[in-house]
Design brief:
Blueprint lengths: L1 E6 L5 E6 L8 E5 L6 H9 L6 E3 L1 E2 L2 E2 L10 E4 L11 H6 L9 H14 L15 H13 L5 E5 L7 H18 L2 E5 L3 H7 L2 E5 L6 E6 L14 H14 L2
Parallel strand pairs: 3-9, 3-10, 7-8, 8-9
Antiparallel strand pairs: 1-2, 1-4, 5-6, 10-11
Helix pairs in contact: 3-4, 6-7
This protein binds adenosine-5'-triphosphate and magnesium ion (MG).
Amino acid sequence: MTDVGKVFPNGNVAVNNINIDISAGEFISFVGPSGCGKSTIFKMISGLIDNTKGNIEILGSDMNDTGQKRTDVGFVFQDATLLPWRSVLDNVMLPLEFQKMSKQEKKQEALRALELVGLEDYTKSLPRQLSGGMRMRVSIARALVAKPKLLLMDEPFGALDEITRQSLQTELLRIWEKQKMTVLFITHNVFEAVYLSTRIAVMTPSPGKIASTVDVPLAFPRNDEIRTTHQFSDIVAQVSHDLKF
Ligand SMILES: Nc1ncnc2c1ncn2[C@@H]1O[C@H](COP(=O)(O)OP(=O)(O)OP(=O)(O)O)[C@@H](O)[C@H]1O
Ligand SMILES: [Mg+2]
């Protein structure tokens, strides 16, 4: 993103000058105060809304040139946003609806995505028959089914209890390592950001800018023991410090 800005039609300046270069395969988290423009940045990257200033280049092509590569981008929202009348399998097949594939192939792909999140035994369930954590896993499977090269996750685990949140974090890292995709992740939780990321972008209050980026040189695969190490808490302290200037 080069000098990217967004002014909404009502005059709200959501973000002003976003400059960041993210490499393929990174897992980068965005942290920053409420209203600083994190969700707006993700919506611009996914093409849900347009930027009003600057340039966004994704996967080697300029967003302003073509809309093609947007199919390579998966989005996981804070709420699971599943269709309540569709089964788990049918929800996960949704992004494949308009792809040239046989029904059988679509089913196969959806099953594969559900296996990744450990829900292969719940294909026939309806969303309301699942727990919040399971619904979120369905939503992650739905984002993964089209094999995105870039996965955007906007506070996906915000509504979950700590135990579920931590196990989903570990599951997500396992999927990320396996699929070798790039993940952009929004969270308010600095511990979560450090546990997951290779790098953290710390944002200023509205209109947001990127105040600093902090590298997280902790080795992968990461396990729960890492959360209590000195190195871990040092990085948490650094990010927390950068958040309050
Ligand atoms: N559709 C819109 N029209 C006008 N202003 C908007 C719109 N969407 C967001 N904004 C404004 O843009 C700014 C950034 O909003 P955004 O949702 O990106 O923040 P955020 O960092 O994701 O916050 P949170 O952490 O609370 O989710 C806010 O000041 C908000 O009021
Ligand atoms: Mg937001």
